[in-house]
Write a structure and sequence with these properties.
137 residues, alpha+beta, 5 helices
Amino acid sequence: MITGEDYIEKVKTYFNYLVTEFGFSLIEEKVLGNAFYDVRYKGNGKVISISYENIADYFQVVIFRLSWWGKLPNYDDKTRTIHLNKCNEQISLKVSSDEVALNNEYFSKFTADNKLERKLLKSARDLRLCLKFSAKI
């Protein structure tokens, strides 16, 4: 099991490009005991939630498209809530092998020491491509 502090540190490291490259701001770091951790970034009309349920070992990245007045949509609103795997499906044919290689090169500076860190790193890579190539998010 990972501690909340370690989880947040890894997320901030792997997903730092959200701030430096895409202009997002870190808006929330939530730790509920040792059971649930969530880091949220906001920018460009979106909130990105990177959460982990420690006990259930359930990790997910969700992109919420904010309403025009800036309100967070309901999690079940399929038109405004996009899971990272859906975004990957949308861009899979748009991204060239050269772009994938460049993206992988960007992340080659990071190391992942365990299964969760590998999930975090893979999601960070996938999200960066989604933000670059998906017009729908």
